[in-house]
Specification:
The N and C termini lie far apart (46 Å). It is built from 8 helices and 9 strands.
Length: 266
């Protein structure tokens, strides 16, 4: 039979790296080829780098870790996959200096996404590598946006007692680089996103009746909000969880915030 998947593995590797922004070789191996030896993934990545699809930076610390990212050419190839049809490459794509400055947060976000992918495999659920989508823009109007660190799609399997369900979540990955109060303030932006109704068309004097919130154009249900806490000890984690559970004391906020539970990883 004709092998119609020639190059499919290479294209998947480029697509995953493009969507995850940056990753190490070990991180790339987990989503694209977990059933083979990592040497095969290393050879694939060396080939892709030689073809100009990906590039890398070497960190002076952390054992001179090599961090991979796509080039402009690689981003163009990645967008040929149906899953990335509406994907927009980062403005810093192929910028080695920008990659080096963003690497800490980007690798932590990638590691968080891979944790969901691996856990789904163990549980028999469905969360494929491209079901983790970093930096999805949501407009609030007037130039304000909400950009979660990632949007997660996760389908639970049928356990025999209940049918599997589709879960969606906005994920904020906190590396303890801001105080608990500033972290909790992010809840306000998501509350505004939940209530945001698109502005009326130019020239309209009044808001048309029955206009729905803008998020309904993208999601059947408003995604949950998940905070992944890193970069601090248990005391710091407890402090941040406490801050997230204590929204500002206004009745309007309390009604909105009730939709966004704080999750503690099990």
């Amino acid at each position: 039979m004709l092998n119609v998947d020639v190059g499919g593995g290479d294209q998947l590797a480029v697509a995953v790296l493009a969507q995850y922004r940056m990753a190490t070789t070990e991180q790339m191996h987990l989503p694209i080829a977990p059933g083979v030896r990592i040497e095969r993934t290393r050879r694939r990545l060396v080939k892709l780098r030689g073809e100009g699809l990906i590039d890398r930076v070497t960190l002076p610390q952390a054992g001179r870790t090599r961090v991979l990212f796509v080039t402009q050419y690689g981003a163009q190839v990645a967008m040929e996959r149906p899953e990335l049809r509406n994907w927009q490459p980062s403005r810093t794509v192929s910028d080695r200096t920008a990659a080096r400055l963003r690497v800490g947060h980007a690798l932590t976000v990638a590691e968080t996404g891979l944790a969901f992918v691996q856990d789904a495999r163990r549980r028999g659920d469905v969360c494929r590598p491209l079901d983790w989508i970093p930096e999805v823009y949501h407009s609030l109007g007037s130039g304000e946006t909400v950009i979660p660190d990632a949007l997660l799609y996760y389908r639970q399997s049928d356990d025999g007692e209940r049918a599997g369900s589709m879960l969606r979540a906005f994920v904020e990955v906190d590396r303890a680089t801001m105080g608990p109060e500033r972290l909790a303030a992010k809840l306000g932006a998501y509350a505004r996103l939940h209530q945001c109704v698109p502005a009326p068309p130019p020239g309209a004097r009044h808001q048309p009746a029955g206009r729905e919130e803008s998020w309904r154009q993208r999601y059947p249900l408003f995604p949950r909000l998940l905070f992944a806490l890193d970069g601090t000890g248990q005391t710091g984690v407890d402090t941040r969880i406490s801050a997230l559970r204590q929204p500002p004391a206004t009745s309007h906020w309390r009604a909105s915030c009730g939709r966004f539970p704080c999750w503690r990883p099990r």
